[in-house]
Amino acid sequence: MFSTSPNDAKERYCTHYMYLNSNIDQYAINISELNIPNFDKFLNLLDPNAQIICGVRDPIGILKHNWGRDWTKVSRNYPRDFNLTYDYRNYIEFLTHNKKTEIKVDFEELNNGVFILNFLLRYFNQDKIYYLDMNSIIPENAFKTLDFLARKFSFTPPHIEKQSFFKIQEFKGYIRYLFPITLYANKKDINNRLNPEIDPLNSIAITLDRPRQNEQINIIKLVIDDDLSNDIALYIQKEDLEKLTNDTQFFNAVKEYLHDFLFEIKKIDKQNELMMMKEKEVLSIFASDKALASKFLNIFQKEYQHLEQNRPDIINSWKYYQKFKNNDFT
């Protein structure tokens, strides 16, 4: 089991302690930020000889992600429920990437939530660390990697029937910040103008979400049968699906609305991919600011000293970091 982490060090410790002393026999503690009060005490109370899986990634790719995304999307300012009269283009506007005209380098943020490996190493037995390059868990490699890790660290391996879940791209555009949202489909809303009044009791709920374990039925392939189904699901109760399929006109209207909505999501996702910052843009920033490049070189060398000593193969596989180290900013 993997648990989300409270934003208070004591509460976080108590939560983990509770889970570790329950009947859960497989549990992982995530450490991905430092800027929490009394976090040093939290780290000192952990078992220094615990087995550790440490995810690492080409730092130029990390900066591309950190600098290039529109993090205002996290605020999620939009209605979570809608009906067939709602203009889904409002959701598409939310999903649209806003390319930054100026990059603000926040070293405090980077040192507290991104480049934290060197700080954490002092709290643990470094011989117990297994480095996992992020390329090992991209969709085409994820299932095989998790199967290997399960056998290496003695947790339950992923089941072959769940292989489709490993095709999900967590940071595919901004849909991770949009979903879940719920369409309340009602016959009275067909062909009507905007009617913001939602009638949940007399409507059929269809939830747009990421694919996950769910007792409801995923009907996305009844609406749009392509690779979008790797990243999006349409969940509906079995009895509601039966009601829809027994009313052909209503079902066709719902499918048409959802198909058009999903088609626009797919289109904006492709547009976003073209607009998102690329590694070459990060290198270009360093090319125009040698003092900034020198500062980051010091950060990277300190951050990855232990990794370079123990897994030089990972360091050497990082294409853009190698270009950065060699002053090749092309």
TrEMBL record:
<protein>
    <recommendedName>
        <fullName>DUF2972 domain-containing protein</fullName>
    </recommendedName>
</protein>
<dbReference type="Pfam" id="PF11186">
    <property type="entry name" value="DUF2972"/>
</dbReference>
<dbReference type="InterPro" id="IPR021353">
    <property type="entry name" value="DUF2972"/>
</dbReference>
